[in-house]
Design goal:
The protein is of the alpha+beta class. It has 2 helices and 6 strands, in the order αββββαββ. It has helices at 2-24, 98-108; strands spanning 44-47, 62-65, 68-71, 76-79, 115-116, 119-120. The strands form 3 sheets. It has a two-stranded antiparallel sheet. 15% of the residues are buried.
Length: 129
Amino acid sequence: GRSEFATCQRWFYERIVAKLLSTLDQPDPADTDPTHTVLDNTLIYVCSEVSDGANHNSDASEVWLDGAPHATYLPAVLIGGAGGWLAPGRVVDVSGTNLDLLATLSAAMGVPVDAIGGQSVQIFQELQA
């Protein structure tokens, strides 16, 4: 169940930190500012399908596991600074849909959108530097 999945996720995230991030945390040869790293100019979106099933709308309603309530957030991890657009190194709890997150990622890459699939979207200002 969930605890086994959490163990797998922990293993995966530990590998990201140990290998990928250490590789990207070096000077970016494509950037004219020598203080910027590849990681500063990167945007990696790591997500999980474990939350509200096929709806993918970040339904944060509670579920009961082992007699205790737990929130069912759709977890997402953003790694890197997206060329200065994101303020890294924080944990941010935002309220919105996955489409809002996708719109935020789009804005971070310089392509702002106001609708996805016919649905209005808003960017998460809390993530912006």
